[in-house]
Structure formats: C-alpha cells, structure tokens
Specification:
By secondary structure, the chain is mostly helical. It has a single domain, classed as MetI-like fold (Orthogonal Bundle). About 70% of the residues lie in helices and about 0% in strands. The protein has helices spanning about 5-15, 20-30, 35-50, 50-55, 95-130, 130-145, 150-160, 165-175, 180-190, 195-205, 210-245, 255-260, 270-300, 300-305. Helix 1 packs antiparallel against helix 10 (about 195-205) and helix 5 (about 95-130) packs parallel to helix 8 (about 165-175). The two termini are about 45 Å apart.
Length: about 300
C-alpha cells in the first residue's frame, strides 16, 4: 500500500470544491425570497457607494444658502431638481448627502469587518488548535474585550489620534470588533481538528502552521463569513452612532449619522431631515442582515430546518 506524501495529503484531505456545490448553494439561496431581497438591497447600496460622484446631483459639501427660504429654514422637498429631497439647515443637498453617506457607510462597514475577520480568525484558529495555556490566554483576552462597550473604546481611540479620518474610524472599529469572530472560529476549529484528514497531515509531519492554514482555515471560513456579513450591518450602525455623537468621520465628509444629528433641531417642523438618513440606514442594515441569514440557511440547510 503506497504511502501518501505530504503534498498529496494536502490535496486529498481538503474539502473538495466542486462547481456543482455552488449550483446547489445558489438554488438554496435563491429559494429564500428574503435573502434575495437582502442581496438586492446590498447591491443597490454598493452601486450607489461606488458611483456616488456620478449619481450625486451636487457636491455633498456645497452650501446652497441662496436657494433656502428667507427665514433660514431648510428647503423642503420639491420633488423635482435641483433639490429633489430638499436641503438641511446649512444648505447641503439632502440627496447628495445620502448618496455620499452610502460610500462612507460601506467603506467603514466593509473595511472594519475585514480587519475583524483577520484578527478574529487568527486568534480563534490558533486558540482552538493549540489548546492548553494558549487557548486559555487568548480566550480570557477575548472575554475581556467582550466585557467592555466597543463604542467607548472607539471614542477613546479617536480622541487620542492626531487627525481623525475615515481610515482611523474603520481601523479602530476593526481592531476592537473581533472577539465574536474569534469565538466562532475557535468553536469550528475544535470540531474540524477531530477530522481524520487533520490526523493524517499531522502523522505525515506537517507543521501546526501548515495544518491550520491548509486544512483547518478553509473549513472554518463558511460560518465566519456568514457572521462577517452580519457584522457589516453592525459596523454601519456603529459608524452612524459615532458620527451622531461627533466622534465618527470628520467634517466635511458626509455621513448618515451626521445627517441624523443635524436633524435634531428640525425634526418637529421638518421631519424629512430625520426620515431620509433613517430609511437609508435601515435599508442598508436590513439588506446585510437578510443576506447573512440567507447565506447561513443556504450553507447549513439542516440548521435552517430546525
């Protein structure tokens, strides 16, 4: 009986990705109408974010004070150009602010989630595979991070940096939002480590790093990516909350959270200033939540039937 080499074991012991598997996954996903709606909402927000300079009728930072009423009140929606959704209290076009706000929300939500995925998967896989004191140390660190409200940590980090930018916002969120991902990755690693192909690779002399990267990580990605999709929605909400409090993206960068903050003084007489960013925020987060639930049901059909 021929003994497999280490290189052959890497090929034969990993889960095969067959094109038919994607077809089955897509059929399961497409049968979920809510998931398809979520995907559509995500695609719309992504399209608006990418093509914001071409879709926006005006500059998001331009102040059209001359077009406002003589009493200085915001210009109400006219349902025709040039101010389709009206203006805010300082003359910013609401539609342009919404469009560019989608770009900021998507950039912060996606980039912060990617940073969290990298940190969380590294911590979870290492803790689950090595076990022992390494596992105890990393999981106690994870518990400590979970015990403190992330929004306070982000405000603290943003307050000490010399110049706040969009990059500092999503970086500070990303390096603090990884504990949930780490716990999921650790749980999946504990399960995957018991499989025979991991024992085969270990018996052939594969290093722990090689086993974690080639054999464990690919089998941990699915549930982590589902959680990451849901995390994007949470990060979008977190960015809006920070901007609402004045600790998010700096001026003059538009943000849905800053639009909500600017509407406080007008919500009784001009409620549309509160409605537009609120609806945009709700649709974006709803889209990612529906998409995440749909991905989970499509990847785990047994769990969806429970």
């Amino acid at each position: 009986m021929r003994t497999l080499s280490l290189a052959e074991a890497d090929v034969t012991t990993q889960a095969d990705v067959h094109p038919a598997a994607f077809v089955v996954f897509w059929r399961r996903f497409a049968r979920n109408r809510l998931a398809v709606i979520g995907l559509g909402l995500v695609l719309v927000v992504t399209f608006v974010a990418i093509f914001a300079p071409w879709l926006s009728p005006h500059s998001a930072t331009a102040e059209f004070i001359s077009a406002m009423p003589l009493d200085g009140a915001p210009l109400k929606p006219t349902w025709h150009m040039p101010f389709f959704l009206g203006t805010d209290g300082v003359g910013h076009d609401e539609l342009s602010q919404l469009i560019y706000g989608a770009r900021v929300s998507m950039e912060v939500g996606v980039m912060a989630t990617l940073i969290s995925l990298l940190i969380g998967m590294a911590v979870g896989v290492v803790a689950g595979y090595l076990g022992g004191w390494v596992d105890n140390l990393l999981m106690r660190l994870t518990d400590i991070m979970l015990a403190f409200p992330i929004i306070l940590f982000v405000i603290l980090i943003d307050s000490v940096v010399s110049e706040r930018t969009v990059a500092t916002v999503f970086t500070s969120i990303g390096i603090l939002a990884w504990p949930g991902i780490a716990r999921i990755a650790r749980g999946q690693t504990l399960s995957v480590s018991k499989n025979e192909y991991v024992d085969v690779a270990r018996s052939l002399g594969a290093s722990p790093v090689r086993i974690m990267v080639l054999h464990i990580l690919p089998n941990v990605l699915s549930p982590v990516l589902v959680y990451g999709t849901l995390q994007i929605a949470n990060n979008i909400l977190l960015e809006s909350a920070l901007s609402f409090l004045g600790a998010g993206v700096p001026d003059p960068i538009p943000s849905w959270g800053k639009m909500l903050s600017a509407s406080i003084g007008y919500y009784l007489v001009d409620p549309y200033l509160l409605i537009w960013p609120g609806v945009a925020l709700a649709l974006a987060t709803l889209g990612f939540n529906l998409l995440g639930d749909g991905l989970n049901d499509a990847m785990n059909p047994r769990a969806a039937q429970l």
